[in-house]
Write a structure and sequence with these properties.
The protein is an alpha/beta fold and about 725 residues long. The chain folds into three domains: about 270 residues, Glycoside hydrolase, family 3, N-terminal domain (TIM Barrel, Alpha-Beta Barrel); about 200 residues, Rossmann fold (3-Layer(aba) Sandwich); about 110 residues, Immunoglobulins (Immunoglobulin-like, Sandwich), CATH 2.60.40.10. Helix content is about 25%, strand content about 20%. The protein has 19 helices and 26 strands. The longest helix is centred in the N-terminal third of the chain and has 17 residues. The structure holds beta-D-glucopyranose (BGC). The site of beta-D-glucopyranose has 7 residues, from loops. One of its GO terms (biological process) is carbohydrate metabolic process. One of its GO terms (molecular function) is hydrolase activity, hydrolyzing O-glycosyl compounds. This is Glycosyl hydrolase.
């Protein structure tokens, strides 16, 4: 039977009560899922489990591979690797009995302080779209539904449940919508709406964006799920095109926390900033049934919701029975795979490949026999991720000290230097989560040592190379107050740098941070949140076993240089409205336009090898080819980037350049390759509020190079 007939026949057999059970979440009897649909046993529709994402699988009480933060995956500029990571996450979801993964997150990095930047991919829509599509493709290749989130303009955590992104149509179309469009084009099975409002309307009620754009214009035929407790109203949401309410039931203890009788409107209680009202649930239960009875919601809408859910269940083999969870480590398409060696390897690959070498005066790679001082307040802990719904608990992890000790042939000493940086977590902010329930399971002991700056300086003086590990601490539901590193870490780096001119700094951050000492040290690496492979990946790059082939998916600059700085109206907003007045001039588009040199530009990252570029030539209407040669005596990985400069058009303010495509290539010493780049249509187009997508006639310049500020060859292209 054809898929549509199969789901159509099933739908025809369901009563209204049964249909309603498929559109509203319920409590998972096994307690592992983040969201649970009970299914309809009599009709042969099994339960359906949705699980977080996106840094690995966060099934309650279960361990799984802790992959690097999404921003690290993005920094690889390697869509095949993103695909492999997605497939691994899909297999792990299956092994843990889950059916849909709540990943990837593809919101554009607009605000450098955003607490969830680590879960996102890029400040550029073509880049975010390509990496996001790779992840979607991978997850779904393992027969697990991918859920692209959070649709749309969820670019800050401050007041995320109420703030309205006031954003013009051109900016939405050119910047914020394209990564979601790319996921839809990649066949994503599900889209999660954002908590926030857009131009005044809550996203779950946004008929134009959900109904007209996503489902209508883009032809999305999967299901749209609410963010948790983020469904605003039964009628508005159903008519806007929402298909599933999650989690559908109040969080245990939430009502009590809110002083039980919320119906009375207890004025003493306020949900903390960024935390949704966890009693706001059940709208797609009786209230939806009533709205259908009263004619406010057409009955066909309920059928459409169910058809979309059954459609995805059918597409991924959930309606033909027989899926079982695997034993640990077992590999089988049906049974999934958990914490296997190949998954550990993929996590390590992404962590190493996503590492960005900002600067290097020649101290790196380290000599095998160098005496190394491993310094930093958290060198005995892996940096798994940020706080919140993406927290993943691994079976196995490696700390920076362990990684370096197992690789080094010289002496290794350790010093903490300054007080430990504590992780922050959304779960600490939830009024109804007890301390025992905290998701990361790693209660930190902040009293376990007496750090001493003098010890760190002594260790630095005695070593050939001091390697200082610094980190920020970010979480879902909170933005950072500052881009400065927390605690006394800047002081620590400066003291170590003054003691030894070979100081190397390894930064672990969820997005841009300020590095005031960057010119005073010998080398700086950015490792994002490297996940369980932390120390191994750090050692592999530091000793040159792996080339640091990550490139920046986001501009690094002092906080005051970003377009959202110093303008409360833009960020965090005034009267619950954040005005996206900078328009499309976000990230490098802003820095180019304002003619400001960032600390490190978009696309930046050194290799241990050296690459030379020959002249680019056209290789088809949407393809350019450029010869790239590795002129070093070691192999290396280059990320070749193509940007497009549009012709000037009267009355239209366009970015100077926009990323059109990229390609990562591994080149052996002395190897030369012609690298082909596909140019994305988006880089040539602009969205005109009256006439829609427009490609201005004229000569465009394709710029090809190593970063947005390091162009090596250009080519005119007429359109
Ligand atoms: C987050 C989502 C997540 C969901 C379920 C929400 O707080 O915004 O990204 O998937 O919770 O945990």
């Amino acid at each position: 039977m054809a898929d549509d007939d199969h789901t159509g026949a099933l739908l025809a057999r369901l009563s209204r009560t049964q249909k309603l059970a498929l559109v509203r979440g319920a409590t998972d009897p096994e307690g592992t899922a983040t969201g649970y649909l009970p299914g309809v046993e009599e009709a042969g529709i099994p339960p359906f489990r949705l699980v977080d994402g996106p840094l690995g699988i966060r099934a309650e009480g279960q361990r799984a591979t802790a992959f690097p933060a999404s921003i690290a995956t993005a920094a690889t500029f390697d869509t095949d690797l993103a695909q492999r990571q997605g497939a691994a996450m899909g297999r792990e979801a299956t092994a843990l009995g889950q059916d849909a993964l709540l990943a990837p997150g593809v919101n554009i990095i607009r605000v450098p302080q955003c607490g969830r930047n680590f879960e996102y991919l890029s400040e550029d829509p073509v880049h975010a779209g390509a990496v996001g599509a790779g992840l979607v493709d991978g997850i779904q290749s393992a027969d697990v539904v991918a859920t692209v989130k959070h649709f749309v303009a969820n670019n800050q955590e401050t007041h995320r449940t109420t703030v309205s992104a006031e954003v013009d149509e051109r900016t939405l179309r050119e910047l914020y919508l394209p990564p979601f469009r790319a996921a839809v084009d990649a066949g994503v099975g599900s889209v999660m709406t954002a908590y926030n409002r857009v131009n005044g309307t809550h996203m779950s009620d946004h008929e134009r964006l959900v109904g007209d754009v996503l489902k209508g214009e883009w032809g999305f035929d999967g299901y749209v799920v609410s963010d948790w407790y983020g469904l605003e109203s039964p009628v508005g949401a159903a008519n806007a095109g929402m298909d599933v309410e999650m989690p559908g039931v109040a969080a245990p203890g939430a009502a009590e926390a809110a002083d039980s009788d919320t119906a009375d409107g207890d004025e003493g209680f306020e949900w903390p900033n960024g935390i949704p009202d966890a009693t706001h649930a059940g709208l797609f239960g009786d209230p939806l049934a009533d709205a259908i009875d009263s004619g406010e919601v057409p009955a066909e809408r309920l059928d459409d919701m169910v058809r979309r859910i059954l459609g995805q269940m059918n597409r991924f083999g959930r309606l033909d029975g027989g899926r079982t969870a695997a034993e640990d480590g077992e590999s089988d398409d049906q049974a999934g795979e958990l914490d296997s060696q190949r998954h550990r390897d993929i996590a390590a690959d992404v962590a190493a490949r996503g590492t960005v070498l900002f600067d290097n005066d020649g101290v790196l790679p380290l000599a095998d026999g160098a005496d190394v001082a491993v310094i930093g307040p958290n060198v005995d802990e892996p940096k798994l991720g940020g706080g919140g719904s993406s927290e993943t608990t691994p079976v196995h992890s490696v700390t920076p000290v362990e990684g370096i000790e197992s690789r080094a042939e010289g002496a290794v000493t350790t010093a903490f230097g300054v007080s430990q940086i504590e992780s922050v977590s959304l779960f600490d902010l939830l009024p109804f989560v007890g301390e025992d329930d905290e998701a990361d399971g790693s209660a930190e002991d902040t009293t376990r040592r007496e750090p001493s700056l003098d010890d760190a300086v002594d260790a630095a003086e005695a070593a050939d190379v001091p390697v200082v590990f610094v980190r920020d601490a970010t979480t879902e539901a909170r933005d950072r107050d500052t881009l400065a590193l927390p605690g006394r870490q800047d002081e620590l780096v400066s003291a170590v740098a003054a003691a030894n001119e070979n100081t190397v700094v390894v930064v672990r951050s969820g997005g841009p941070v300020e590095l005031p000492w960057h010119e005073d040290v010998a080398a700086v690496l950015e490792q994002w949140y490297p996940g369980q492979a932390d120390g191994d990946a750090a050692a592999a790059v530091l000793y040159g076993d792996r080339d640091p082939s990550g490139r920046l998916p986001v501009t690094f600059a002092p906080e005051t240089a970003y377009p959202t700085a110093g303008a409360e109206r833009r960020y965090p907003g005034v009267d619950d409205e954040a005005h996206y007045d900078e328009g499309v001039f976000v990230g490098y588009r802003h820095f180019d336009d304002a003619d400001v040199d960032p600390t490190y530009p978009f696309g930046h990252g050194h290799s241990y090898a050296t690459f030379e570029y020959g002249p680019a030539e056209t290789a088809g209407e949407w393809t350019v080819a450029v010869p790239v040669e590795n002129v070093a005596d070691r192999s290396g990985r280059e990320v070749v980037q193509a940007y497009v400069r549009p012709p000037s058009v009267d009355g239209v303010d366009r970015p100077q350049r926009e990323l059109a495509g990229f390609e990562a290539v591994q080149l052996a010493a002395g190897e030369r390759q012609s690298v082909k780049l596909t140019l994305d249509d988006l880089a040539f187009s602009r969205y005109d509020p009256d006439s829609g997508w427009t490609v201005d006639t004229g000569t465009y310049t394709v710029e090809i190079g190593r970063s947005s500020r390091d162009i090596r060859t250009t080519l005119p292209v007429d359109r």
